[in-house]
User: Which sequence fits this backbone?
């Protein structure tokens, strides 16, 4: 008996799809970072009881994408020598509003509550693409109404950064604060004392549309083939 080496069109499509699925995953790279700069001070993200009210502070710092990629995570540096209390630290990615403040929410980032100094990573809950030449804001806040909480993020007076070509972290004109009173956020304003939040943006290559279409087509063909077989066997 001869063994046929012929592969059906569906089999070929599936093989190609599986090959593509192993190639669309890329190693994470640091697109931009200022974590190696000297630490000059810190600012609190907090939500505290004050005079019978809950008064908090949100922080945001901009960065500009130099290429179209997928956001893997944002790593943030917290002050050493402090023991931030409470739970409910929140991180998010926002669009830009007029070049001066965060605009609309693009993605929620998930990660641990920092209870000691050092680096902590915050990852988008859904696949999030960053577009070349676009300005974004990394925004950090504390959940309103939880037990008193404060989280000190380090800042640096050094506005330089390292990373890939075209990427940059906004300078001291792009570090914004806002007061949150009883859950109601005030207007964003620039940090008068200067400085830049210390963080880095890690990314991976965005999958090409043609590859994603091939992958989707392959698994679609597999589903239809299995469905036809079950119908025939029934």
Assistant:
């Amino acid at each position: 008996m001869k063994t046929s080496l012929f592969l059906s069109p569906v089999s070929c499509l599936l093989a190609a799809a599986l090959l593509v699925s192993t190639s669309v995953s890329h190693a994470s790279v640091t697109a931009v970072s200022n974590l190696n700069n000297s630490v000059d001070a810190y600012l609190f993200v907090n939500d505290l009881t004050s005079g019978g009210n809950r008064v908090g502070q949100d922080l945001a710092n901009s960065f500009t994408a130099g290429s179209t990629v997928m956001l893997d995570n944002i790593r943030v540096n917290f002050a050493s020598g402090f023991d931030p209390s409470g739970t409910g630290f929140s991180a998010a990615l926002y669009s830009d509003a007029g070049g001066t403040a965060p605009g609309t929410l693009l993605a929620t980032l998930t990660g641990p509550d920092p209870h000691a100094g050092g680096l902590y990573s915050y990852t988008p809950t859904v696949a999030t693409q960053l577009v070349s030449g676009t300005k974004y804001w990394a925004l950090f806040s504390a959940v309103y109404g939880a037990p008193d909480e404060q989280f000190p993020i380090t800042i640096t007076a050094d506005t330089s950064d390292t990373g890939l070509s075209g990427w940059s972290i906004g300078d001291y004109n792009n570090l914004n604060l806002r007061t949150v009173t009883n859950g109601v956020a005030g207007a964003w304003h620039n940090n008068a004392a200067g400085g830049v939040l210390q963080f880095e943006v890690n990314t991976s290559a965005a999958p090409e549309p043609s590859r994603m279409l091939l992958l989707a087509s392959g698994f679609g063909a597999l589903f239809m083939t299995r469905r036809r077989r079950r119908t025939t066997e029934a």
